[in-house]
TrEMBL record:
Region of interest: Disordered: 1-21
Family of this protein: Belongs to the SEC15 family.
Protein name (Swiss-Prot/TrEMBL): Exocyst complex component
UniProt cross-references to InterPro entries, sorted A to Z: EXOC6/Sec15, EXOC6/Sec15_C, EXOC6/Sec15_C_dom1, EXOC6_Sec15_N, EXOC6PINT-1/Sec15/Tip20_C_dom2
Single GO BP term: intracellular protein transport
Ranges for domain Exocyst complex subunit EXOC6/Sec15 C-terminal: 456-804
GO cellular component entries: exocyst; plasma membrane
């Protein structure tokens, strides 16, 4: 009974619950039928009497725990039964059986109470079974008839369902197509943009496709293909745009020349216009400046102000944007910006432009030969930086001011180095001047674009020195041609017009000559007005370089004066010195050169005034440089004078070499030697030419000639190769000296006082008188006295000549020892020789 109750399971469904209840009730009924109620009661009474009160209480507690405790936790409770007194479990089992029987009686009572109702229910249920079977038959029949009637409806319903499904599928398809069509349209639009090379728009379309359209229909395969294609298209656009940029860079290299030419022409026109305005203001406020060569207004590169204005009006102003299509740069910049790779593009562009800058800055090897070479070089550089300036202002960040400044500093250093090198090869001043004008326009052009150009103007000072050097070389050739073509004779003037023509070219004023009747002669030769005019032309040429240098009048004045000083002190002075030293220049030419330099020296003050009129700088200014022409012409004149003295002495030597004395002759010819008479005639005619020379020059030349003649004659007597001289030869020599003294006393050059010129021959005269008179006693007695008659006769000179005569006496008079007079004379000579030697020895010891 206990085991059957313990094995009961809780039903999980209503059917199982009904089945369970049936089993329970069946068991209950069986137990009720098998249990004997009076016997159970008697056993419990006996047990109650036999157990003590404590044991009953403990067993009750355990039973309550078993009944109230979960089955899994019964173990500890049961273990406590066995832990108590021995045989306690038996008493517990008895107690447990009593409790079971008690519960069985309660169950039986309950079943007896509900049994009649249960029987009634069963009876009623049996009655209902027949009705249920009847109802079941009716339902089955009704169901059959309903199935037969609903078969057609079911078929139609299935058709309707199928149509509804198709309709729903079509609606879904239309809906999805409406989502796909914009994607396809955008993709088609993308293809059209790519074909029409609208790459920036194509990138925007790609962005819309990726961010808006494709995500809506991303599950379709064609959209996945599109999504995979877009990165490739982007790379293709990058490659195409980069290719366009490379084409642009190549194109810009070719167009830089034209861009630079246009920019420089506009800068030149602007500068010419400003210069014209400034001149008009100057003309209205002050006296006009000298034009170049005194003929025309100043020009710039051959363009007058009027012509430049007309050209400026006629020609439309062009910019770099008009000459070059910059769209590839903008497009490529936008594309790389959209693609997030702007930095790569900027680095590439700057790197390529740096390379191009280095190529542009590399000049041609023959650039210095023509101005076109320089112009093309400058045009390319200007074109390069005009493009960079446009890119700087038209884009944001593609190039920066720091980048352009870096390029400009690199270019400026290279340009300066190139110009220094190539300008040093220029020998044509016109080419150097053209180069200067190009540098000025080049600097003005780039300065207008914000680039610093101070170093270029500093370079112009170096170019100015080179220009001056080329001018000096050119004018050296001009001066040389003038000197070679000059006839070195006074300028003949036949009438008033010719006179004015000369005076207009050279500031000549002489009251005496102006009073003379025509025809007349001006003292200077033809080279003087030509030299003066060429010096003025040189000043004009120097002034050309000073234009547009943004320098003050004082600085220009200083530059003109310094360059003119170089012309006078170096070039003209060198030409004069070379001219004076030329072998074919004779005494007449030298005299004319001295006259010419004198007049040029007087004209220097007019050159000072000429420069002052050009620059409007007062000569009284503190820092004004003075012209050094006075010293130049004085030095040239002194050199010419020295050359006159030298050539005159050389001519005297040539005549002396013609002397042919018979030193052993017994008697003189009674007349002077022919060579000496020719020499004197030459000197007379020469000194007549000296009438136009300054007095001191002619006197110095005459005195120098006489001294040189006297020295040459003395050297002829004392020549060591001459061993013997006869008294007849002395007499003949004396006749020649007398002719020299007569020439000196005839005053060939006016201005000598007394017998000053004759003193040149005093040494010869006293020596010859000593030997002619044979006045040795007087010479020896008065030697050393200031009042000596033969004060100018040196004992060594007398001794040398006397020994030559002693040797002659020994050779020619073999029998002179047999004649008393000859013996006495010979003894006298020997005595005089001894005394002269003692005097010579005494002089040497004293010295």
């Amino acid at each position: 009974m206990y085991n059957s109750r313990s094995s009961l399971k809780i039903p999980t469904s209503p059917q199982e619950e009904d089945k369970g209840e049936g089993k329970v009730y069946g068991n209950v009924f069986a137990e009720l039928e098998s249990v004997d109620l009076p016997l159970g009661t008697t056993l419990r009474a006996n047990m109650a009497e036999s157990e003590s009160l404590e044991t009953i209480t403990e067993h009750e507690r355990i039973l309550q725990e078993i009944e109230s405790t979960d089955t899994a936790c019964v173990g500890p409770t049961l273990r406590s039964v066995y832990d108590d007194q021995p045989n306690a479990h038996k008493r517990f089992m008895e107690k447990l059986d009593a409790r079971i029987r008690n519960h069985d009686r309660e169950i039986e009572k309950m079943c007896n109470f509900h049994h009649q109702g249960f029987v009634d229910a069963i009876t009623e249920l049996l009655k209902v079974r027949a009705d249920a079977e009847k109802l079941m038959g009716q339902v089955s029949d009704t169901n059959r008839r309903l199935q037969d009637a609903g078969r057609e409806v079911t078929a139609q319903t299935e058709e309707v369902i199928r149509c509804r499904i198709q309709q729903r599928n079509m609606a879904t398809t239309v809906e999805k197509l409406q989502l796909c069509i914009p994607v396809l349209e955008m993709y088609s639009k993308l293809k059209e943009q790519l074909e029409s090379k609208r790459y920036y728009s194509a990138l925007k379309t790609m962005e819309q496709l990726e961010n808006i359209y494709i995500p809506r229909v991303s599950k379709y395969r064609f959209c996945q293909i599109m999504a995979e294609t877009l990165p490739k298209l982007r790379e293709e656009i990058k490659e195409i745009s980069m290719s366009d940029l490379k084409d642009f860079l190549e194109s810009i290299r070719k167009h830089s020349d034209k861009i630079g030419e246009t920019a420089m022409r506009q800068a030149q026109q602007h500068r010419t216009f400003n210069s014209a305005v400034q001149k008009q203001v100057t003309l209205s406020c002050a006296k006009p400046l000298y034009g170049l060569n005194g003929r025309t207004p100043l020009h710039h590169n051959g363009l007058s102000t009027e012509a430049a204005d007309e050209e400026e009006m006629d020609e439309e102003v062009l910019t770099a944007q008009d000459l070059v299509d910059f769209s590839p740069v903008y497009r490529c910049l936008h594309i790389y910006t959209v693609l997030g790779d702007r930095e790569t593009f900027e680095n590439y562009y700057r790197k390529q432009r740096k390379k191009q800058a280095r190529l542009v800055l590399q000049p041609q090897s023959n650039m210095h030969e023509t101005v076109e070479g320089y112009r093309k070089y400058f045009n390319q550089i200007v074109g390069f930086f005009v493009v960079e300036d446009h890119i700087l202002h038209a884009t944001q960040g593609l190039v920066t001011r720091a980048f352009t400044d870096e390029l400009w500093n690199m270019a400026l250093s290279k340009v300066i180095a190139v110009l220094r090198t190539h300008s040093s090869y220029c020998n044509d001043p016109d080419l150097v001047l053209e180069l200067k004008n190009l540098i000025v326009i080049f600097a003005d052009t780039l300065q207008g674009y914000g680039f610093p150009v101070n170093r270029l103007f500093d370079l112009l000072f170096e170019v100015r020195d080179q220009y001056n050097e080329t001018l000096l070389k050119k004018w050296a050739l001009v001066f040389r041609d003038i000197f070679e073509q000059d006839n070195y004779s006074p300028i003949p003037v036949e009438n008033e017009e010719e006179y004015k023509a000369v005076v207009s070219r050279f500031p000549f004023h002489d009251a005496e000559i102006e009073k003379q009747q025509f025809p007349k002669k001006l003292p200077m030769s033809q080279s003087v007005p030509q030299i003066y005019s060429q010096v003025k032309e040189f000043i004009y040429a120097s002034l050309k370089f000073s234009e547009s240098l943004h320098r003050s009048s004082t600085e220009i004045d200083d530059m003109l004066r310094k360059s003119t000083n170089l012309l006078l002190t170096r070039t003209l002075s060198s030409c004069l010195q070379n001219l004076i030293k030329k072998p074919h220049i004779g005494l007449t030419e030298l005299v004319q050169i001295i006259i010419n330099t004198t007049h040029l020296e007087h004209a220097c003050k007019y050159l000072e005034d000429f420069i002052t009129n050009i620059t409007n700088v007062s000569p009284e200014t503190v820092h004004t440089t003075r012209l050094y022409g006075l010293s130049t012409f004085k030095d040239a004149r002194h050199a010419a004078e020295g050359e006159i003295y030298t050539k005159l002495n050389q001519k005297i030597d040539e005549f002396i070499q013609l002397a042919d004395y018979e030193w052993g002759m017994a008697e003189s010819d009674g007349r002077a030697s022919g060579y000496l008479m020719d020499l004197i005639n030459f000197l007379r005619s020469t000194f007549q030419v000296f009438t136009h020379l300054p007095g001191k020059v002619a006197q110095t030349a005459c005195m120098s000639a006489c001294k040189h003649l006297a020295t040459s004659l003395m050297q002829m007597l004392l020549d060591t190769e001459l061993k013997q001289i006869s008294m007849g030869a002395i007499q003949q020599f004396n006749l020649d000296v007398i002719q020299c003294e007569l020439f000196a006393s005839s005053e060939p050059v006016p201005g000598f006082q007394g017998d000053t010129l004759q003193l040149a021959f005093i040494d010869l005269r006293q020596l010859l008188d000593l030997f002619m008179v044979w006045d040795w006693s007087t010479y020896l007695a008065d030697y050393g006295q200031p009042t000596s008659k033969y004060l100018r006769v040196n004992p060594s000179t007398a001794l040398a000549l006397l020994e030559k005569m002693k040797d002659t006496s020994k050779k020619n008079n073999i029998f002179s020892q047999f004649r008393k007079n000859d013996r006495d004379k010979q003894k006298l000579i020997e005595t005089v020789v001894k005394q002269l030697r003692s005097l010579v020895n005494g002089m040497s010891q004293h010295s």
